[in-house]
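Q: Hi! First time asking for a complex rather than a single chain. Here are the components, and I think there are two in total. Is that enough to go on?
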Amino acid sequence: MNKTSETNVDELVPIYFMGKRYDVPASLTIQKAMEYAGYQHIRGCGCRGGVCGACGTVYRIPDSYKLQVGLACQTVVQPGMHLMIMPYYPGNRSSFDIQEMSGTGGELASLYPEIFKCIGCNSCGQGCPMDIDVMHYMAQAIRGDIAGVAETSFDCIMCGLCASRCPAEEVQFNVAILARRLNAKYRIPRAEHLEKRIEEIDNGKFEKPLRDLMSKSMEDLKELYRSRESEPQMAEEDWTPQDARYV
Amino acid sequence: MPYPEPLKILLEKVVATRPARVEKKKNGEEFTAVKLEERDTILNNFHPDFIEGTRRKIRVGPSKGYAISNEFVDLLESKSRMNPDLVNLSQPDYETDILVIGAGGAGTAAAILAAENGARVLIATKLRHGDANTMMAEGGIQAADKVGKDSPYYHYLDVLGGGHFVNDPELAYTLVMNAPDAIRWLEDLGASFSKYEDGRMKTMHGGGTCRKRMHYAADITGAEIMKTIRDEARNHEDMIDVIEFCPAVELVLDEHGRCAGAVLYNLETSEYYFAKAKAVIMATGGSGRLHIQGFMTTNHYGATADGIVMAYRAGVPVSFLHTVQYHPTGVVFPEQAEGILITEKFRGAGANLLNIHGEQFVYEREPRDVEAACIIRECSPEGRGNGIPTPTGKYGIWLDSPMIDMLKGEGTVRKEFPGKHILFRRFGIDISKEPMLIHPTLHYQNGGLDINSKCETNVPGLFAAGEVSGGVHGENRLMGNSLLDVIVFGRLAGEFASEFIRENGEIGAVNLDHVRRYNDEVEAAGTGETGIAPMLLPDYSNPEVKEKQLTKDYFGTLS
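A: Yes, that's all I need. Here is the structure of the assembled complex.
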């Protein structure tokens, strides 16, 4: 039951991979259908779980003029579909030194001045397999709203399909990651508890307790493990343990 | 596809028991956890690691006699992909200070640190930069940085308890003591962690943690980390070169036994190259695509244990490979999503696991091996036989995600788990209203190459970091400690490898003698017909098609 499934006896449907017909089981994703047909992917296959951006795919189905997009690992085949996996799309990227910036909208504009050429056609958003409102974050980028770009683009998998559709030749996904990094580094407050804890570690606060633990017998360790106090699931952030010797 | 009618009917039982279960959760009443002394019995009876006949002793190499999964032994008893006599080592195709093999979290972190320490870096990777298990890690990254309630002391205890108390103590120490600095490094590079308004990190529980120390970026923590450090590596273009679709297939040593680079294989032109380096960092990740015991896997396409094979041939022993981690919750239906990981964070946020009667049968935050074994026991006909039958003939368990909205407010599932919400929406299932069907899935290689806390192997100049190495997690890794592992040890590997090349002079005459010796050893062991390794890519093509693929090996252009 937990084994990988045998190939299902399943209705076969025709799909056209770059124009060439293969008959494949109707329940498979495009990625698995190509493997069924005999392909061993080199490009166009990564995580097989919809997060890495390796298998952006464009396709058309019969009786519709619309060009559709999806991820090959997530999209189930449809009878008569014509498809192409686009594992790579050239995109320019501006290098920057994250330590020497300040997190302003002007920095987006100076690294990617072409954002102002955006014509607001929404081809990018229609081409996004993650349903991200790409045109909206490009508008936010033009306004210098770094936090907005960061939030709108958070799920971006950088597959490049937006850029492939853009008549203004934008490379939206690189603008987006720049904004996300600037936002996280400069616009959102730092975690002060991190600094404090690192200082404690550097000052050797935990050195002795930890070295003592490391030298204990397995039985003693098991006893300490069993009796360790657990923070309750629904505890608030300010919960503190009764035994505060090692915290 | 949405849940078909028979499942809809079973779902009514989940709905019926839900209000009482939510109430219990709110009152802090948890299902009784498995006692430490009972864990072994459950593991011995139901964990896949303990099934008779699935392991055998390796007959060659530095860990000869060590019994591990057949699928691993098959690879370790294989011969090289290429004839060592045909590789021209006199003319390196690439020369660099440090060669990093693998471009996931560990390799990328190592490359950045090496570059910052003045070393020129070449990253060779089989797929694209970032196509790795790091990208897929969802739940979070542990670090004991909540002053006043947590510390590396408790993190260490949790790591050891999860790992059955047999972890390498120095490696576990290194992991927990460097954890807060790893988070600070990521924060400083602009990784978007989920935070409170004042900048404090949001943290939650994972299986086997005694304090809430799981930091996260919604439910795509690994992707956020991977995208950030990959982007940072690209900012070091003057120091870091990346060659994609060009995996390493053998290490190269010098006359003194020092690692001197690797033979790379261009997947697209079938050429073999010699990349010469003063030090090598092995960061090839895990091995889920070996499908141990036929299990489905959460791993990415390239997880085929290549680094283990290469380093083992060069003389690096392996340990803890006898245990494999099965993630308790992989999708078992719909079939298109089969094997896909459902982060432990769902359980950390309060979702129950339920059997066919809509009843709880296990505490949700057991260490992964215990949790997985309890789920298998519940599903298995030899166990309790309370699994939910799927339309594809398998059995699963409900993961009751709608509880999270009831506990933490409407919209929480959508906001905290956008990745999975979108995924299931594509199949017509709204996981804020309906639970998911899950079953344990091959997830993580607990063991690997022996390293010390400087990431050194026993081969001078060869370092290893991340999932390819073993010891830090003992026999079972806790959630949130693998992202931590790749960042902590990736950074250390970069640092210590650059120190190594500063302190050691030029490399001597290079050779592939160890590959010849290993091939001979395999031959002498009389293991019968052997395959070739590393595997590089799994093969899922249709067997009927394969029968017609008559040309298996050839030289030059077919005519």
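A: The longest helix of chain B spans residues 481-503. Let me know if you'd like any chain examined more closely.
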